[in-house]
Amino acid sequence: MAKQDNRPSGSQPSLNSSTQGRSLTPLQRMSRIVTVLLKGIPFSIGMKLRRFLYRSVFAQMGTAVQIEPDVEFVRPYLIKIGDRVQLCAYAYLEVSTETGQICVGNRVRLDRGVDIRSHEYGTVEIGDRTRIGPYSCLSGQIIKIGKDCLIASHAGIYANNHIFADRHHNINQQGRTYQGIVIEDDCWLGSGVRVMDGVTIGKGSVIGAGAVVTKDIPPYSVAVGVPARVIAQRGSKEHELEPTDLMQVLIELEAKPQSQTG
């Protein structure tokens, strides 16, 4: 059942808004100073300084972590980073309130410009050896991504929805609902995939580029289209698809509405 938060969307605190009108705690003050001072230092000296000094302000910082310049953190003391993690330039990790957290497993790579935001009472969890491509966005209360997943560039994983039933009030004043998203181990999401709130993508599934996933996907499925639908099962000889076959299916799906109307 969806959780409902009836507070206006604009009332969701961020680091800037939540500390206005009150003094920062020593941990908040230290985390802000350390991350702001160190985030822009280039080259290997910057990586070494961040790896050493960020330990004092993060909830957990594993060994051999590589954090490139201009990676931003909000509330790093609520962020856990595993061993041998790579955070590429311009990645952004925000825990929106004091009640959330972000957990990044071992050997995870967050590519350039990846944007991750954990909402109030939320947990965003990324399993070991998962890779998230450039400029992908994850935002919501509960997002769980399993181990060994491949998420291509510009993916959107949004575990929240705006309430809009009352047309007499602005949408941004009607709050949000939360259900949660689960992407199980060994999944591959193509470029530009969108995953909507409440969805579980089963283990070993492949989601074609540009698909919009609005319903659960069974394990080891191949799904494409808007909305995404299952067209094959991995490991089944009569339904097995090669990458070239998948591309042909996508072309046919694009052409189908035109042939029906013509």
Separation of the first and last Cα atoms: 42 Å
Helix content: 10-25%
Output the CATH homologous superfamily. Hexapeptide repeat proteins
What class, by secondary structure content? Answer: alpha/beta
* Major sheet: 12 strands, parallel
Overall shape: globular
What is the number of domains?
Answer: 1
Report mean pLDDT, rounded to a whole number: 86
Task: State the CATH architecture.
Answer: 3 Solenoid
Radius of gyration using CA atoms only: 20 Å
The fold-level CATH name is UDP N-Acetylglucosamine Acyltransferase, domain 1
Order of helices and strands: EHHHEEEEEEEEEEEEEEEEEEEEEEEH
Number of contiguous helices = 4
Count of individual beta strands: 24
- What proportion of the residues form beta strands (DSSP E)? 25-35%
Poorly predicted spans: 8-21, 258-262
The CATH class assignment is Mainly Beta
Assembly level: single chain
